[in-house]
């Protein structure tokens, strides 16, 4: 048997649509694998009732097939599905790392990214790597078609998860297909600012770099109370606020000493909009770990 703890992640970070991602130090999934003649799946934990155990419909089934590594796979969900915190990516990345160890395939973590992305395709319809890359590699990641760049950084974050469900497919449908050049230039500037901030572990630059005018405004419309939460977080000391991945989680960058008050303010912001929520006081963390 092999056991892996695979972290939640946040993709896009506002200005880096389908490119930027970070691993979070909490919450996380735990995946256990045992060799078997065919793949079977057992799911427990938060939101497990909504996750199919049919290997053809579950992300880890696709990963096992991609690695030619049949196994009995147990997934203990700590990352809620449809949360915008990389729930499917945590399971896919964790399974890829665990099966690689179980069968002694010898792949590096970078080489496992495409296999884990095959699992993501089961959920979103496309093999995106912006969540599985940080789940496997840790830190801040910049994903391009042919490579992933990783930066170790120390940035405090708050991820606030409301009791709202938004599917990745639905969130992708609202993304605009055209943009004004002024907005494109603004987004490029924000993305560059955020990347420099990550390299310097600078919360101010990271927060400013989350600002963009293309994807976030469209996706935030799907999140009841988003503007309340954004304003509350900024008033409490957050340096920047954006939608986490496809949503509905809202991500805030902040200084470590402000994390508790930012978390409380975000929960209160959702409460004022009539939405229950919980906040994770977290930070940019490491990738999946094999026990």
UniProtKB/TrEMBL annotation:
<keyword id="KW-0808">Transferase</keyword>
<dbReference type="InterPro" id="IPR036554">
    <property type="entry name" value="GHMP_kinase_C_sf"/>
</dbReference>
<dbReference type="Pfam" id="PF08544">
    <property type="entry name" value="GHMP_kinases_C"/>
</dbReference>
<dbReference type="InterPro" id="IPR020568">
    <property type="entry name" value="Ribosomal_Su5_D2-typ_SF"/>
</dbReference>
<keyword id="KW-0963">Cytoplasm</keyword>
<keyword id="KW-0547">Nucleotide-binding</keyword>
<feature type="domain" description="GHMP kinase C-terminal">
    <location>
        <begin position="196"/>
        <end position="268"/>
    </location>
</feature>
<feature type="binding site">
    <location>
        <begin position="80"/>
        <end position="90"/>
    </location>
    <ligand>
        <name>ATP</name>
    </ligand>
</feature>
<feature type="domain" description="GHMP kinase N-terminal">
    <location>
        <begin position="60"/>
        <end position="139"/>
    </location>
</feature>
<dbReference type="InterPro" id="IPR013750">
    <property type="entry name" value="GHMP_kinase_C_dom"/>
</dbReference>
<comment type="similarity">
    <text>Belongs to the GHMP kinase family. Homoserine kinase subfamily.</text>
</comment>
<dbReference type="GO" id="GO:0004413">
    <property type="term" value="F:homoserine kinase activity"/>
</dbReference>
<comment type="pathway">
    <text>Amino-acid biosynthesis; L-threonine biosynthesis; L-threonine from L-aspartate: step 4/5.</text>
</comment>
<dbReference type="GO" id="GO:0005737">
    <property type="term" value="C:cytoplasm"/>
</dbReference>
<keyword id="KW-0791">Threonine biosynthesis</keyword>
<keyword id="KW-0418">Kinase</keyword>
<comment type="function">
    <text>Catalyzes the ATP-dependent phosphorylation of L-homoserine to L-homoserine phosphate.</text>
</comment>
<dbReference type="InterPro" id="IPR000870">
    <property type="entry name" value="Homoserine_kinase"/>
</dbReference>
<dbReference type="GO" id="GO:0005524">
    <property type="term" value="F:ATP binding"/>
</dbReference>
<dbReference type="GO" id="GO:0009088">
    <property type="term" value="P:threonine biosynthetic process"/>
</dbReference>
<keyword id="KW-0028">Amino-acid biosynthesis</keyword>
<protein>
    <recommendedName>
        <fullName>Homoserine kinase</fullName>
        <ecNumber>2.7.1.39</ecNumber>
    </recommendedName>
</protein>
<dbReference type="InterPro" id="IPR014721">
    <property type="entry name" value="Ribsml_uS5_D2-typ_fold_subgr"/>
</dbReference>
<dbReference type="Pfam" id="PF00288">
    <property type="entry name" value="GHMP_kinases_N"/>
</dbReference>
<keyword id="KW-0067">ATP-binding</keyword>
<dbReference type="InterPro" id="IPR006204">
    <property type="entry name" value="GHMP_kinase_N_dom"/>
</dbReference>
């Amino acid at each position: 048997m092999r056991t892996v703890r695979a972290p939640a992640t946040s993709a896009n970070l506002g200005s880096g649509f389908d490119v930027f991602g970070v691993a979070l130090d909490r919450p996380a999934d735990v995946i256990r694998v045992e060799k078997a003649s065919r793949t079977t799946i057992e799911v427990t934990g938060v939101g497990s009732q909504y996750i199919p155990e049919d290997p053809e419909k579950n992300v880890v089934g696709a990963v096992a097939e991609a690695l030619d590594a049949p196994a009995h796979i147990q997934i203990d969900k700590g990352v809620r599905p449809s949360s915008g915190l990389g729930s499917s990516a945590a399971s896919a990345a964790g399974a890829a790392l665990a099966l690689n160890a179980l069968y002694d395939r010898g792949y590096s973590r970078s080489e496992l990214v495409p296999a884990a992305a095959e699992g993501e395709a089961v959920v979103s319809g496309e093999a995106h790597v912006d969540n599985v890359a940080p789940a496997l590699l840790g830190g801040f990641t910049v994903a391009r078609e042919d490579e992933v760049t990783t930066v170790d950084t120390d940035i405090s974050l708050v991820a606030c998860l409301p009791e709202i469900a938004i599917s990745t497919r639905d969130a992708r449908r609202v993304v605009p297909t055209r943009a004004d050049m002024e907005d494109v230039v603004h987004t490029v500037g924000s993305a560059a600012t955020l990347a420099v901030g990550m390299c310097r572990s600078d919360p101010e630059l990271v927060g400013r770099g989350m600002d963009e005018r293309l994807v976030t405004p469209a996706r935030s419309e799907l999140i009841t109370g988003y503007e309340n939460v954004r304003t509350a977080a900024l008033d409490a000391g957050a340096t920047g606020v954006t939608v986490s991945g496809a949503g509905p989680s809202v991500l805030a960058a902040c200084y470590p000493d402000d994390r508790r008050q930012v978390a409380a303010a975000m929960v209160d912001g959702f409460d004022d909009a009539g939405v229950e929520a919980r906040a994770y006081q977290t930070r940019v963390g490491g990738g999946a770990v094999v026990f």
